[in-house]
Amino acid sequence: MSETPAAEIFSDHSVRLAQIANPQSEIVHFGSDQALPLDCGDKLAPFSIAYQTYGTLNADKSNLVLVCHALTGDQHVANVHPVTGKPGWWETMIGPGKPIDTERYFVLCPNVIGGCMGSTGPSSINPATGKAYGPDFPVITVGDMVRAQAQLLDHLGIPDVLCVLGGSMGGMQVLEWASTYKDRVFAAVPIACAARHSSQNIAFHEVGRQAVMADPDWCQGRYLEDGKSPRKGLAVARMAAHITYLSDDALHTKFGRNLQDREKVTFGFDADFQVESYLRHQGLSFVDRFDANSYLYITRAMDYFDLAADHGGVLANAFQGTRTRFCLISFTSDWLFPTEESREIVHALNAVAANVSFVELKTEGGHDSFLLHEPELFDTIRGFLNAAARHRGIAEAEGWRA
Amino acid sequence: MNLNVPPHSVRGTDTARVDLLLIADLVEPGARVLDIGCGDGTLLRILASRRSVDGRGIELSQAGVNSCVAQGLAVIQGDADTDLVYYPDLAFDYVILSQTIQATYSPRHVLEQLLRIGRRAVISFPNFGHWRVRTQLLFGGKMPRTNNLPDRWYDTPNIHLCTIKDFVDLCGDVGAKIERAVALNAYGTKLGVAMPLFMQNLFGEQAVFLLSR
Questions:
Q1: Domain A9-197+307-391 falls in which CATH fold?
Q2: ipTM exceeding the 0.95 mark
Q3: SS3 of residue B51 by DSSP
Q4: A192: alpha, beta or left, given left = phi > 0 and alpha = psi -120 to 50?
Q5: What is the pLDDT of residues B117-138, one digit of tens each?
Q6: Interface of B with A in 113-142 (CB under 8 A)
């Protein structure tokens, strides 16, 4: 395995750790009098939410587009990432003149609670001990993440959301928003997600968590206190997960059985194949920007997500009485959250006669298609959002040609 | 696709299928409408611009769905034969099935579903009783092909063609009340209301029915 130089790790590590307490983001602190009630029965207080915004809130406060990030995403959706230096994860989607047009919409993306980029999570300081929460952080749910976001909007004085969008776990948050805060969501775009985490997906998450916890540097979850980091375990977790985000075809097209900088196999366990080298790189670069305990907590939140179970076992009940305009999007090559999962949500929405659009886009990129340059995805989101905004009477941005 | 075209604009209204304009006239303004087999959304656009309806669509072809949604129309990919069961009773004021019933596997089941989920159902279909169809089969001895039914027998999606009289019989069988029935000739002109059924069945190239339970 090609090792990253120690100095580089150290600098990345310190930059990343700095984001936990002092993120390069807007941040709101909620005190003990504004505790967040959690599904597990505990309360989280005090707590913070870090978020990024783009564009301008209009006078009516009616043009908010809320973007929910996925498991390993964060709030840096359309700006250079402070730790990696790379473009935001949806920079192709959000910006002036882009499908989510910041000339027209006020875009807000919060870091989820449980995360590691400024919102309170397991690497934040536990006020009871003065040390990082570590394994003492309460187990959170997607419902808790969304409740915290609603509290953020309350704090910002924004009554409702023009549109809430997100892919994967972001899509789960979108569904939770639309179900729990029906009157606050005008339009919703759940992408490549499901109303419940499947058994297979829980299984993959468990593999990842076991990899982290098997790393001796995990230190029973107290690695920050010991100045350590379960890098190997987290890298393996990421490698396994990364395979599930791609498709067989995409991997084959990109790598085939090509060898990495060599003419023939070495009869050893070096990264002979390009795909191995690629995965190792994915694992290593991930640990430079993500916290291992956050990975445990957030994967757990996804595992617990089951919207139907929260509503008497009938998914349609979750949307009873909804007036939200929905647009569901799935991808043909996504085997982690296959189209059938989205179709189940569509059927539930049909059962309550909701206003719903649904497209399945033909892609090769697997689950990660929602992060890629897919023109049809852009067309869909631009068209749907434009119609929602028009129905809400939000003026078109200047330069929008009729 | 040019996304700068406002989705509500009705492009080519003058060339729009005549049956679509006729259907639009049957729909009350502001109604909640489900268009099954909505294709590229032409009827939904007409309904939105002319009748200000709250329109939804179901379309089998993914390309059609994607194009509709990109225009801001509320459309899902789905199949008239299998997906109507997911809707509750009386979910819509109008359920429209335009030039599609003859392509379903189970037209009777579909018709019953339309009448269940909509207060009214609007159905248009090509009339297989038209004289041109009859004469082609009688004198040519081959499956008819007309402007309205251009496909060859082996590649047509129309697996359950019927005549106006056949359809009237089916309405009776499922207990549907025919509120209006209009036959159109080859030029899209309405045949006289006074014309008896057998004449409509002979000279109507397509028919539009407004049904209720």
A1: Rossmann fold (3.40.50)
A2: no
A3: helix
A4: left
A5: 999 999 999 999 999 999 999 9
A6: none
